Structure formats: C-alpha cells, structure tokens
Amino acid sequence: MRNRRPLIVTLIAAAIATAIGIALSFIIHWFPVQASAQAKNTDRLYHVLVIASIPIFVLVVSTILYSVWQYRMKPGEELKDGPPIHGNTRLEVIWTAIPAMLVLALVSYSFVILHDNEKKPAREIQVQVTGQQFFWSFVYPSSVTGGKPVESDQLYLPANESVQFQMRSKDVIHAFWIPAFRLQEDVVPGITTTYRATPDRIGTYPVVCNLLCGLGHSTMRTNVHVVSEAQFQQWLKSKGASSSTTVTKP
Which of 125, 182, 210, 218 has the fewest CB atoms within 10 Å of its CB? Predict the structure, then answer.
C-alpha cells in the first residue's frame, strides 16, 4: 500500500495556509475607511470572494507542489515514460460542475450587491460632475440649492443622503473614483454616466481620477467633504452669496 503520509502532510499544510490566508484578509486593513453604505456592501462582497478564492488557490498550488514532490523524475529515469492511464468521466464531470456552480453563485451574489448599490431611494439629490484635464468641477442644480445652480471645485455632500452623480467629460476619458465610497465610474466625452452613493461617515476623503488622462493625471485630485445636513445647507448659502462663485446653468 502506498505511503499516505506525504498526502496527509500536504492536506494539513493546505488547511493551515487556507486558514492563515482568510484570517489575514480580515486582520489587515487593505482598504481606506468605509464612508458610504455602498462601501460596506462592496467590502462584504470582497470578503466573500476571498473566502471562496483562497481555498481554490491553495488547492491548485498544493496539488502542483505535491505532484512535484512525489512524482519528480529521479536520476536514471530521464528516458522512461509514465504509465498509461485512462480518463475518468465521473472525475471530469465533478471538477467541471463544482467550479461552474461556484462561479454562478459568486456572479449571482455580485449582481445582488451591485443591484443593491444602485437601488434608487425615495429621496436623493443630484450633483453634476465634470472632468477635464486636469481637475474636477461640481455643479449643484436648482433642485438642490433651491435657487441658482452653484459650481465648486470641492465636493460637499450631506451625510446619510443618497446622491446621484451625473458625470461628463470635456476632453478625454477620466474615471471618477472615491476610494472611501468604493465607487468608480468612467467619465466619457459625449455621454453622461451615473452612479449613486449614500455617504454615512462625516469627514473629508480624496477624489481621484483613476485613468491615465495625460501628463497632469497625478494632479487630478480634489476632496469630498461629508458634512451634516445643516452644514451642507450653510455651505450652499455661502457659495451662493460669494462673489467668487461661478454660477452656471444646468
């Protein structure tokens, strides 16, 4: 009977590696702070994908290492051929069906998360985003200001209020990315792209262009300020009363 000790050692090592990998995915803070409801959904999806992916990765690597360890060529065997084997239909069906079901389950769960992120609430505000080399500008339409539209190079949002971003580009393709919101969308010339977010953590977070858009790409940054509803209304009033504010038509 073949010695099963190497196989047992490999299985134990694989189980330990899987446990360590999954634990590290939770212990190490890989991402910025969560600042939106969508960020929580996205991070949960990430952890589900990691929990599903790490065992598969460890299984594949362990199989390769075990095969190299146990079936490596020994001196004097250079011209020998391996023993003939026949296909195993049951095994082939199993290793085709299980990955297919796993992929289908992960795709379905991803769809649920993305659909939930884009679900339109009963109340939300719109902010028009314009990207151009190499800065962002934001327009708050009359439906938000209650008066004239207000334009700013800083993004202010009320906490716990759904926001739909309506994005346009004046020149090349940009990517409107707020890491703390876990959301990104391409900003394409000639069309309007959208996504929505519900900021739920007061603070200031970076806004980044995440597509190489020219020599000044690295400088195409600004901030999103998540503030209370009262502070947001106060900021709108101050911008509307400021002589330096540029007023544009929606």
Answer: 218
What CA–CA distance (Å, rounded) separates 210 from 141? 26
> Is there a contact between 33 and 180 (Cβ–Cβ < 8 Å)?
yes
What is the tens place of the pLDDT at every residue in 133-183?
999 999 999 888 888 899 999 999 999 999 999 999 999 999 999 999 999
Residue 153's alpha-carbon distances to 90, 159, 221, 246, in angstroms, are 62, 19, 10, 10
Residue pLDDT, tens place only, 193-210? 999 999 999 999 999 999
pTM of the model: 0.76
Q: How far is CA 7 from the centre of its chain?
A: 38
Its sign, for the CA torsion 142, 146, 147, 150, is negative
Backbone angles phi, psi at 146, to 5 degrees: 75, 5
From the candidate CATH numbers 1.20.58.100, 2.60.40.420, 3.20.20.140, 2.40.160.20, the one assigned to the domain spanning 124-241: 2.60.40.420
For residue 132, the tally of other CB atoms under 10 A from its CB is 17
